[in-house]
Write a structure and sequence with these properties.
It contains eleven helices and 17 strands. The chain is globular and about 60 Å long. A hairpin with a 3-residue loop joins strand 6 (110-114) and strand 7. The chain has 407 residues and is of the alpha+beta class. Helix 1 (13-24) runs parallel beside helix 3 and helix 1 packs parallel to helix 11. The strands form four sheets. Strands 1, 2, 5, 6, 7, 8 and 17 form a seven-stranded mixed β-sheet that branches. A six-stranded antiparallel β-sheet has the order 10-11-12-13-9-14. The chain binds flavin-adenine dinucleotide (FAD).
Protein backbone atom coordinates (compact mmCIF):
# COMPACT_ATOMS: atom_id res chain seq x y z
CA UNK A 1 0.00 0.00 0.00
CA UNK A 2 1.32 3.47 -0.94
CA UNK A 3 2.07 5.87 1.91
CA UNK A 4 1.95 9.69 1.88
CA UNK A 5 2.41 12.36 4.52
CA UNK A 6 -0.65 14.18 3.26
CA UNK A 7 -3.55 13.32 0.98
CA UNK A 8 -5.43 16.30 -0.40
CA UNK A 9 -8.88 15.14 -1.52
CA UNK A 10 -10.51 17.31 -4.18
CA UNK A 11 -8.60 19.16 -6.90
CA UNK A 12 -10.59 22.39 -7.07
CA UNK A 13 -8.70 25.63 -6.57
CA UNK A 14 -8.53 25.04 -2.79
CA UNK A 15 -7.11 21.53 -3.24
CA UNK A 16 -4.54 22.70 -5.79
CA UNK A 17 -3.42 25.47 -3.41
CA UNK A 18 -3.11 22.94 -0.58
CA UNK A 19 -1.17 20.33 -2.58
CA UNK A 20 1.24 22.87 -4.09
CA UNK A 21 2.09 24.57 -0.81
CA UNK A 22 2.49 21.32 1.16
CA UNK A 23 4.69 19.72 -1.51
CA UNK A 24 6.85 22.84 -1.81
CA UNK A 25 7.36 22.65 1.96
CA UNK A 26 8.85 19.17 1.51
CA UNK A 27 5.90 16.93 2.40
CA UNK A 28 5.09 13.80 0.40
CA UNK A 29 1.70 14.76 -1.02
CA UNK A 30 -1.00 13.06 -3.07
CA UNK A 31 -3.70 15.20 -4.70
CA UNK A 32 -6.74 13.07 -5.54
CA UNK A 33 -9.54 14.30 -7.79
CA UNK A 34 -12.65 12.48 -9.03
CA UNK A 35 -12.68 14.20 -12.46
CA UNK A 36 -10.11 13.72 -15.26
CA UNK A 37 -8.83 17.27 -14.75
CA UNK A 38 -8.25 19.81 -12.00
CA UNK A 39 -10.06 23.06 -11.18
CA UNK A 40 -13.43 22.01 -9.70
CA UNK A 41 -15.93 24.86 -10.12
CA UNK A 42 -13.40 26.88 -12.15
CA UNK A 43 -13.30 24.25 -14.90
CA UNK A 44 -16.00 21.59 -14.49
CA UNK A 45 -18.59 24.29 -13.77
CA UNK A 46 -17.02 26.94 -16.08
CA UNK A 47 -16.90 29.56 -13.30
CA UNK A 48 -15.00 32.73 -14.25
CA UNK A 49 -13.79 35.42 -13.44
CA UNK A 50 -11.77 35.56 -10.22
CA UNK A 51 -13.78 37.83 -7.94
CA UNK A 52 -11.92 40.71 -6.37
CA UNK A 53 -8.97 39.97 -4.10
CA UNK A 54 -8.60 43.68 -3.22
CA UNK A 55 -10.14 46.22 -0.89
CA UNK A 56 -12.49 48.88 -2.27
CA UNK A 57 -9.48 51.23 -2.55
CA UNK A 58 -7.29 48.68 -4.30
CA UNK A 59 -5.10 47.15 -1.55
CA UNK A 60 -4.12 43.62 -2.59
CA UNK A 61 -5.34 41.05 -0.05
CA UNK A 62 -4.43 37.69 -1.61
CA UNK A 63 -1.05 36.97 -3.15
CA UNK A 64 1.03 33.75 -2.96
CA UNK A 65 -0.16 30.82 -5.05
CA UNK A 66 -3.14 32.81 -6.35
CA UNK A 67 -0.81 35.49 -7.78
CA UNK A 68 1.44 32.80 -9.31
CA UNK A 69 -1.57 31.11 -10.86
CA UNK A 70 -2.70 34.33 -12.53
CA UNK A 71 0.83 34.90 -13.90
CA UNK A 72 0.93 31.37 -15.28
CA UNK A 73 -2.48 31.82 -16.92
CA UNK A 74 -1.35 35.13 -18.43
CA UNK A 75 1.86 33.53 -19.77
CA UNK A 76 -0.34 31.05 -21.66
CA UNK A 77 -2.67 33.81 -22.99
CA UNK A 78 -5.34 32.35 -20.75
CA UNK A 79 -6.40 35.53 -18.99
CA UNK A 80 -8.12 38.81 -19.79
CA UNK A 81 -8.00 41.03 -16.68
CA UNK A 82 -9.59 38.72 -14.05
CA UNK A 83 -11.38 36.40 -16.54
CA UNK A 84 -9.76 33.15 -17.63
CA UNK A 85 -10.01 30.35 -20.18
CA UNK A 86 -11.23 27.15 -18.51
CA UNK A 87 -9.30 24.73 -20.75
CA UNK A 88 -6.03 26.59 -20.18
CA UNK A 89 -6.84 26.62 -16.45
CA UNK A 90 -6.98 22.79 -16.46
CA UNK A 91 -3.53 22.55 -18.06
CA UNK A 92 -1.91 25.29 -15.98
CA UNK A 93 -3.13 23.72 -12.73
CA UNK A 94 -1.87 20.25 -13.69
CA UNK A 95 1.58 21.64 -14.59
CA UNK A 96 1.69 23.78 -11.45
CA UNK A 97 0.89 20.77 -9.23
CA UNK A 98 3.41 18.52 -11.03
CA UNK A 99 6.18 21.13 -10.68
CA UNK A 100 5.51 21.41 -6.94
CA UNK A 101 6.40 17.72 -6.52
CA UNK A 102 2.92 16.61 -5.43
CA UNK A 103 1.69 13.38 -7.01
CA UNK A 104 -1.56 13.67 -8.95
CA UNK A 105 -4.29 11.02 -8.97
CA UNK A 106 -7.14 11.77 -11.36
CA UNK A 107 -10.43 9.86 -11.76
CA UNK A 108 -10.08 9.00 -8.06
CA UNK A 109 -13.43 9.20 -6.29
CA UNK A 110 -13.16 9.01 -2.51
CA UNK A 111 -15.33 6.10 -1.39
CA UNK A 112 -14.05 5.35 2.12
CA UNK A 113 -11.79 6.79 4.77
CA UNK A 114 -10.81 5.25 8.09
CA UNK A 115 -9.06 6.83 11.06
CA UNK A 116 -5.35 6.58 10.81
CA UNK A 117 -5.74 7.40 7.79
CA UNK A 118 -6.60 4.68 5.29
CA UNK A 119 -8.24 6.23 2.24
CA UNK A 120 -10.00 4.28 -0.52
CA UNK A 121 -10.74 5.57 -4.01
CA UNK A 122 -13.22 4.03 -6.45
CA UNK A 123 -13.82 1.19 -3.97
CA UNK A 124 -10.53 -0.50 -4.87
CA UNK A 125 -7.41 1.66 -4.43
CA UNK A 126 -6.33 2.11 -0.82
CA UNK A 127 -3.65 4.57 0.27
CA UNK A 128 -2.31 5.59 3.69
CA UNK A 129 -1.58 9.11 4.96
CA UNK A 130 -0.74 10.84 8.24
CA UNK A 131 -2.81 13.94 7.49
CA UNK A 132 -5.86 14.72 5.33
CA UNK A 133 -6.86 17.98 3.72
CA UNK A 134 -10.47 17.77 2.63
CA UNK A 135 -11.06 20.11 -0.32
CA UNK A 136 -14.03 18.26 -1.79
CA UNK A 137 -16.23 21.34 -1.64
CA UNK A 138 -18.79 19.38 0.36
CA UNK A 139 -16.49 18.06 3.10
CA UNK A 140 -17.05 14.45 2.01
CA UNK A 141 -14.01 13.05 3.84
CA UNK A 142 -14.86 14.89 7.05
CA UNK A 143 -18.45 13.61 6.77
CA UNK A 144 -17.21 10.00 6.42
CA UNK A 145 -15.11 10.51 9.56
CA UNK A 146 -18.12 11.73 11.56
CA UNK A 147 -17.49 15.50 11.53
CA UNK A 148 -20.29 17.78 12.66
CA UNK A 149 -21.87 20.32 10.31
CA UNK A 150 -23.63 23.63 10.71
CA UNK A 151 -27.40 23.39 10.26
CA UNK A 152 -28.88 24.61 6.96
CA UNK A 153 -32.58 25.03 6.21
CA UNK A 154 -31.85 26.14 2.67
CA UNK A 155 -28.97 26.48 0.22
CA UNK A 156 -28.00 28.96 -2.45
CA UNK A 157 -29.37 28.12 -5.88
CA UNK A 158 -27.12 26.26 -8.31
CA UNK A 159 -26.13 27.55 -11.77
CA UNK A 160 -25.18 25.79 -14.99
CA UNK A 161 -22.71 28.14 -16.63
CA UNK A 162 -22.20 28.13 -20.39
CA UNK A 163 -20.13 29.97 -23.00
CA UNK A 164 -21.43 31.53 -26.19
CA UNK A 165 -19.18 32.24 -29.18
CA UNK A 166 -19.71 34.33 -32.30
CA UNK A 167 -20.79 37.34 -30.26
CA UNK A 168 -20.34 40.82 -31.75
CA UNK A 169 -19.24 42.37 -28.45
CA UNK A 170 -18.84 45.86 -29.83
CA UNK A 171 -22.45 45.83 -31.05
CA UNK A 172 -23.69 44.64 -27.62
CA UNK A 173 -21.87 47.53 -25.93
CA UNK A 174 -22.90 50.08 -28.55
CA UNK A 175 -26.51 49.14 -27.80
CA UNK A 176 -25.92 49.26 -24.01
CA UNK A 177 -24.65 52.81 -24.42
CA UNK A 178 -27.97 53.90 -25.97
CA UNK A 179 -30.13 52.83 -22.99
CA UNK A 180 -28.26 52.83 -19.64
CA UNK A 181 -31.51 52.41 -17.68
CA UNK A 182 -31.90 49.00 -19.30
CA UNK A 183 -28.75 47.83 -17.50
CA UNK A 184 -27.33 47.46 -14.03
CA UNK A 185 -23.94 47.05 -15.76
CA UNK A 186 -22.32 48.48 -17.78
CA UNK A 187 -23.36 52.05 -17.06
CA UNK A 188 -21.80 53.69 -20.09
CA UNK A 189 -21.32 57.41 -20.54
CA UNK A 190 -20.73 59.56 -23.63
CA UNK A 191 -16.99 59.11 -23.08
CA UNK A 192 -17.07 55.30 -23.24
CA UNK A 193 -16.07 53.80 -26.56
CA UNK A 194 -17.79 50.45 -27.27
CA UNK A 195 -14.99 49.36 -29.62
CA UNK A 196 -12.30 49.94 -27.01
CA UNK A 197 -14.41 48.49 -24.18
CA UNK A 198 -15.11 45.34 -26.17
CA UNK A 199 -11.39 44.51 -26.21
CA UNK A 200 -11.20 44.44 -22.42
CA UNK A 201 -13.21 43.12 -19.50
CA UNK A 202 -16.75 44.32 -18.84
CA UNK A 203 -19.84 42.97 -17.11
CA UNK A 204 -23.26 42.88 -18.70
CA UNK A 205 -26.16 42.62 -16.26
CA UNK A 206 -29.38 43.80 -17.79
CA UNK A 207 -31.50 43.73 -20.92
CA UNK A 208 -34.42 44.22 -18.54
CA UNK A 209 -36.74 45.42 -21.35
CA UNK A 210 -35.93 42.50 -23.64
CA UNK A 211 -36.34 39.93 -20.83
CA UNK A 212 -39.70 41.48 -19.89
CA UNK A 213 -40.86 41.47 -23.53
CA UNK A 214 -39.82 37.83 -24.05
CA UNK A 215 -41.53 36.80 -20.81
CA UNK A 216 -44.72 38.62 -21.85
CA UNK A 217 -44.60 36.79 -25.18
CA UNK A 218 -44.23 33.45 -23.36
CA UNK A 219 -40.82 32.90 -24.92
CA UNK A 220 -38.68 33.01 -21.80
CA UNK A 221 -39.24 31.33 -18.43
CA UNK A 222 -35.76 31.53 -16.89
CA UNK A 223 -35.80 32.87 -13.28
CA UNK A 224 -34.78 36.52 -12.87
CA UNK A 225 -35.42 39.73 -14.76
CA UNK A 226 -32.02 40.12 -16.50
CA UNK A 227 -29.22 38.21 -18.16
CA UNK A 228 -25.66 38.28 -16.84
CA UNK A 229 -22.46 37.57 -18.76
CA UNK A 230 -18.79 38.53 -18.97
CA UNK A 231 -16.19 37.96 -21.71
CA UNK A 232 -13.78 35.06 -21.92
CA UNK A 233 -10.22 35.95 -23.04
CA UNK A 234 -10.90 34.83 -26.62
CA UNK A 235 -12.63 37.56 -28.67
CA UNK A 236 -16.31 36.96 -29.38
CA UNK A 237 -16.73 34.50 -26.50
CA UNK A 238 -18.72 35.29 -23.38
CA UNK A 239 -19.56 33.30 -20.31
CA UNK A 240 -23.17 33.27 -19.03
CA UNK A 241 -23.92 33.10 -15.33
CA UNK A 242 -27.71 33.32 -15.68
CA UNK A 243 -29.41 29.94 -15.10
CA UNK A 244 -30.65 29.17 -11.58
CA UNK A 245 -32.29 26.17 -9.91
CA UNK A 246 -33.08 25.57 -6.28
CA UNK A 247 -31.96 22.42 -4.48
CA UNK A 248 -33.14 21.36 -1.04
CA UNK A 249 -29.93 19.31 -0.54
CA UNK A 250 -26.89 19.78 -2.82
CA UNK A 251 -25.59 16.34 -1.83
CA UNK A 252 -28.72 14.52 -2.99
CA UNK A 253 -28.13 13.18 -6.52
CA UNK A 254 -31.89 13.13 -7.20
CA UNK A 255 -32.01 16.87 -6.51
CA UNK A 256 -28.90 17.51 -8.59
CA UNK A 257 -30.29 15.48 -11.49
CA UNK A 258 -33.40 17.66 -11.55
CA UNK A 259 -31.24 20.80 -11.34
CA UNK A 260 -28.95 19.63 -14.19
CA UNK A 261 -31.97 18.98 -16.42
CA UNK A 262 -33.75 22.22 -15.52
CA UNK A 263 -30.73 24.48 -15.98
CA UNK A 264 -29.70 22.84 -19.26
CA UNK A 265 -33.17 23.66 -20.63
CA UNK A 266 -32.71 27.22 -19.33
CA UNK A 267 -29.36 27.50 -21.13
CA UNK A 268 -30.98 26.63 -24.48
CA UNK A 269 -33.83 29.04 -23.76
CA UNK A 270 -31.31 31.82 -23.07
CA UNK A 271 -29.52 30.96 -26.34
CA UNK A 272 -32.78 31.35 -28.31
CA UNK A 273 -33.65 34.52 -26.41
CA UNK A 274 -30.37 36.32 -27.04
CA UNK A 275 -30.28 35.33 -30.72
CA UNK A 276 -33.73 36.87 -31.18
CA UNK A 277 -33.71 39.83 -28.80
CA UNK A 278 -30.14 40.94 -28.07
CA UNK A 279 -28.18 43.06 -30.58
CA UNK A 280 -24.81 41.44 -31.26
CA UNK A 281 -25.98 37.85 -30.63
CA UNK A 282 -27.70 37.25 -33.99
CA UNK A 283 -25.05 34.71 -35.07
CA UNK A 284 -23.93 33.56 -31.64
CA UNK A 285 -24.18 29.96 -30.44
CA UNK A 286 -23.45 27.93 -27.33
CA UNK A 287 -19.83 26.80 -27.61
CA UNK A 288 -19.70 24.81 -24.37
CA UNK A 289 -21.89 23.99 -21.40
CA UNK A 290 -20.39 23.19 -18.00
CA UNK A 291 -19.92 19.50 -17.18
CA UNK A 292 -21.92 19.96 -13.99
CA UNK A 293 -24.00 22.61 -12.25
CA UNK A 294 -21.95 24.87 -10.05
CA UNK A 295 -22.78 24.40 -6.38
CA UNK A 296 -22.20 27.62 -4.46
CA UNK A 297 -22.97 26.23 -1.03
CA UNK A 298 -22.99 22.71 0.38
CA UNK A 299 -22.09 21.31 3.80
CA UNK A 300 -20.32 23.79 6.08
CA UNK A 301 -18.23 22.18 8.80
CA UNK A 302 -18.64 23.03 12.45
CA UNK A 303 -15.12 24.23 13.10
CA UNK A 304 -13.13 25.46 16.08
CA UNK A 305 -14.40 28.92 15.09
CA UNK A 306 -17.49 29.91 13.06
CA UNK A 307 -16.97 32.96 10.84
CA UNK A 308 -20.03 35.23 11.10
CA UNK A 309 -21.72 37.94 9.05
CA UNK A 310 -20.69 40.40 11.77
CA UNK A 311 -17.02 39.41 11.33
CA UNK A 312 -17.36 40.14 7.60
CA UNK A 313 -19.14 43.49 7.80
CA UNK A 314 -17.08 44.86 10.70
CA UNK A 315 -13.79 43.78 9.14
CA UNK A 316 -12.74 41.54 12.05
CA UNK A 317 -9.07 40.49 12.29
CA UNK A 318 -7.65 37.31 13.88
CA UNK A 319 -4.23 36.24 15.19
CA UNK A 320 -4.49 32.99 13.22
CA UNK A 321 -5.53 34.68 9.96
CA UNK A 322 -5.13 32.51 6.83
CA UNK A 323 -6.97 34.69 4.30
CA UNK A 324 -8.03 38.33 3.92
CA UNK A 325 -11.07 39.40 1.91
CA UNK A 326 -13.26 42.40 1.21
CA UNK A 327 -15.76 40.63 -1.02
CA UNK A 328 -19.38 41.44 -0.12
CA UNK A 329 -21.93 38.94 1.12
CA UNK A 330 -23.33 37.38 -2.04
CA UNK A 331 -26.07 34.82 -1.41
CA UNK A 332 -28.04 33.74 -4.47
CA UNK A 333 -31.71 32.90 -4.03
CA UNK A 334 -33.75 30.74 -6.40
CA UNK A 335 -35.29 33.88 -7.97
CA UNK A 336 -32.30 34.33 -10.29
CA UNK A 337 -30.76 37.74 -10.89
CA UNK A 338 -33.15 40.57 -10.07
CA UNK A 339 -32.56 44.27 -10.46
CA UNK A 340 -32.16 45.13 -6.78
CA UNK A 341 -31.03 41.77 -5.57
CA UNK A 342 -27.28 41.59 -6.22
CA UNK A 343 -24.92 41.56 -3.22
CA UNK A 344 -25.47 43.03 0.21
CA UNK A 345 -23.18 44.12 3.01
CA UNK A 346 -19.39 44.31 2.71
CA UNK A 347 -16.52 45.28 5.05
CA UNK A 348 -16.14 49.05 5.53
CA UNK A 349 -14.59 50.98 2.62
CA UNK A 350 -10.84 50.32 2.37
CA UNK A 351 -11.03 47.60 5.04
CA UNK A 352 -11.15 43.78 4.98
CA UNK A 353 -12.04 40.84 7.22
CA UNK A 354 -9.91 37.81 7.99
CA UNK A 355 -10.58 34.06 8.03
CA UNK A 356 -8.89 32.30 10.95
CA UNK A 357 -7.22 28.89 10.64
CA UNK A 358 -9.76 27.59 13.18
CA UNK A 359 -12.46 27.85 10.46
CA UNK A 360 -10.63 25.05 8.64
CA UNK A 361 -10.40 22.79 11.72
CA UNK A 362 -13.36 20.42 12.16
CA UNK A 363 -14.27 20.68 15.85
CA UNK A 364 -12.66 18.03 18.04
CA UNK A 365 -10.82 16.28 15.17
CA UNK A 366 -7.06 15.95 14.71
CA UNK A 367 -4.85 15.64 11.62
CA UNK A 368 -7.51 16.85 9.24
CA UNK A 369 -8.30 20.28 7.81
CA UNK A 370 -11.19 21.27 5.56
CA UNK A 371 -10.40 24.10 3.12
CA UNK A 372 -12.39 25.99 0.50
CA UNK A 373 -16.07 26.77 0.21
CA UNK A 374 -17.12 24.29 2.96
CA UNK A 375 -15.27 26.21 5.71
CA UNK A 376 -16.84 26.80 9.13
CA UNK A 377 -18.97 29.90 8.52
CA UNK A 378 -22.55 31.06 8.82
CA UNK A 379 -24.49 31.14 5.53
CA UNK A 380 -23.98 34.88 4.93
CA UNK A 381 -20.28 34.71 5.85
CA UNK A 382 -19.80 31.73 3.51
CA UNK A 383 -21.55 33.84 0.83
CA UNK A 384 -18.52 36.14 0.97
CA UNK A 385 -15.68 33.73 1.83
CA UNK A 386 -16.47 31.25 -1.00
CA UNK A 387 -14.84 33.14 -3.91
CA UNK A 388 -11.90 31.55 -5.75
CA UNK A 389 -9.02 33.76 -4.53
CA UNK A 390 -10.09 33.04 -0.94
CA UNK A 391 -10.42 29.28 -1.55
CA UNK A 392 -6.89 29.16 -3.00
CA UNK A 393 -5.54 31.11 -0.01
CA UNK A 394 -7.31 28.81 2.45
CA UNK A 395 -5.90 25.78 0.62
CA UNK A 396 -2.41 27.26 0.59
CA UNK A 397 -2.51 27.85 4.35
CA UNK A 398 -3.90 24.36 5.02
CA UNK A 399 -1.05 22.86 3.01
CA UNK A 400 1.60 24.77 4.98
CA UNK A 401 0.04 23.79 8.30
CA UNK A 402 -0.21 20.10 7.34
CA UNK A 403 3.39 20.06 6.05
CA UNK A 404 4.64 21.42 9.41
CA UNK A 405 2.54 18.88 11.34
CA UNK A 406 3.90 15.91 9.37
CA UNK A 407 7.57 16.89 9.45
C1 LIG B 1 -22.17 29.22 -10.38
C2 LIG B 1 -21.06 29.78 -9.56
C3 LIG B 1 -20.56 31.03 -9.87
C4 LIG B 1 -19.49 31.53 -9.13
N1 LIG B 1 -18.94 32.71 -9.49
C5 LIG B 1 -17.74 33.07 -8.98
C6 LIG B 1 -17.00 34.12 -9.55
O1 LIG B 1 -17.44 34.76 -10.50
N2 LIG B 1 -15.77 34.40 -9.01
C7 LIG B 1 -15.26 33.71 -7.95
O2 LIG B 1 -14.13 34.01 -7.52
N3 LIG B 1 -15.95 32.69 -7.38
C8 LIG B 1 -17.16 32.34 -7.89
N4 LIG B 1 -17.83 31.27 -7.39
C9 LIG B 1 -17.32 30.57 -6.20
C10 LIG B 1 -16.15 29.65 -6.50
O3 LIG B 1 -16.17 29.22 -7.84
C11 LIG B 1 -16.18 28.39 -5.62
O4 LIG B 1 -16.62 28.66 -4.32
C12 LIG B 1 -14.75 27.83 -5.54
O5 LIG B 1 -14.26 27.59 -6.85
C13 LIG B 1 -14.76 26.57 -4.71
O6 LIG B 1 -13.50 25.97 -4.75
P1 LIG B 1 -13.22 24.65 -3.89
O7 LIG B 1 -11.88 24.19 -4.30
O8 LIG B 1 -13.50 24.94 -2.45
O9 LIG B 1 -14.36 23.62 -4.32
P2 LIG B 1 -14.68 22.97 -5.74
O10 LIG B 1 -14.32 23.86 -6.84
O11 LIG B 1 -16.10 22.50 -5.64
O12 LIG B 1 -13.71 21.72 -5.81
C14 LIG B 1 -13.96 20.51 -5.15
C15 LIG B 1 -13.26 19.42 -5.92
O13 LIG B 1 -13.39 18.20 -5.19
C16 LIG B 1 -13.70 17.15 -6.09
N5 LIG B 1 -14.42 16.12 -5.33
C17 LIG B 1 -15.63 16.23 -4.76
N6 LIG B 1 -15.97 15.09 -4.16
C18 LIG B 1 -14.94 14.24 -4.36
C19 LIG B 1 -14.70 12.89 -3.98
N7 LIG B 1 -15.60 12.17 -3.28
N8 LIG B 1 -13.53 12.30 -4.36
C20 LIG B 1 -12.60 13.00 -5.08
N9 LIG B 1 -12.78 14.29 -5.47
C21 LIG B 1 -13.94 14.89 -5.10
C22 LIG B 1 -14.55 17.81 -7.15
O14 LIG B 1 -14.57 17.09 -8.36
C23 LIG B 1 -13.88 19.18 -7.29
O15 LIG B 1 -12.87 19.18 -8.28
C24 LIG B 1 -18.94 30.75 -8.07
C25 LIG B 1 -19.46 29.50 -7.77
C26 LIG B 1 -20.50 29.00 -8.51
C27 LIG B 1 -21.00 27.63 -8.21
Amino acid sequence: MKNFDIIVIGGGVAGCGAAISAARRGAKVLLAERQGFLGGCSTASLVSPFMSHKTSDGKVLVEGIFAELTHRLRDRDGMLANAFDSEIMKEVLADFVAESGAELLLRAHLTDVREGYTVTFNGNTTIKAKFLIDCTGNASAAAMLGAEFLPAKEYQSVTLMFDMAGVDEERVLAYAKTCPDNFLYPKMTDFDDPAEMSRGIYTVAGFFDEVAAAKAAGEYCVPGDMIFFIPRPRRGEVCFNTTHASVSDPNDPFELTRAERETRKQAREIESFVRKYVPGFENAYIARIADEVGVRESRRILGEYILTEEDVVTGRKFDDCVCRSAYPIDVHTMDGYIKDGIMSSAPPAGDWYEIPLRCLMPRGMKNILVAGKCLSATRPAQGSARIMPNCIAMGEAAGLYAAEKTR
